[in-house]
Amino acid sequence: MNQDSEFNEQRRFSRISFAADVQLVDAKGSWRSRLIDLSLKGALIAAPQDWSGQPGEHFLLELALDRDEEVVVRMEVSVSHIENDHIGFRCEHIDLDSISHLRRLVELNLGDAELLDRELSALTRGEC
Q1: Residue 26's CB: how many other CB atoms inside 10 A?
Q2: Integer Cα distance of 97 and 101 in angstroms
Q3: In this structure, which of 45, 47, 53, 105 has its CB flanked by the most CB atoms within 10 Å?
């Protein structure tokens, strides 16, 4: 079994493709990038130019869900892996408004309310 299939088997949260801009912020600065996919527990983004983060480092990830940037999902994330030209982040904390927006986005894209309920249940039990 290769590393990718092992990683996919360990994944407990459905990932959805969603084209959007994201912003990463930490004490050293901010970087704009493109979202590749998203789940209730993390995000995969294209590596921004001039970004030099390392696994385990913490950032604020902001994802605007509308053009006016009035609906924004904000997650405190840590770098879980860096591969080629993309970065995987694990959600460490998310506020109630952001999780509500994210839940709705995932629900619309999954098209399966039962699967979403199972994932939310696993998230609240800490099965990540």
Answers
A1: 12
A2: 6
A3: 45
What does DSSP assign to residue 65? S
* Structural domain spans, the chain: 3-125
Token representation of residue 123? 């998230």
Q: What is the pLDDT of residues 55-95, one digit of tens each?
A: 999 999 999 887 766 888 999 999 999 998 999 999 999 89
Token digits of residue 88: 């995987």
Report yes or no: 86 and 57 within 8 Å, Cβ to Cβ: no
CATH classification code of 3-125? 2.40.10.220
Nearest to 78 by CA among 63, 94, 67: 94
* Cα angle 78-76-4, degrees, rounded to a multiple of 5: 40
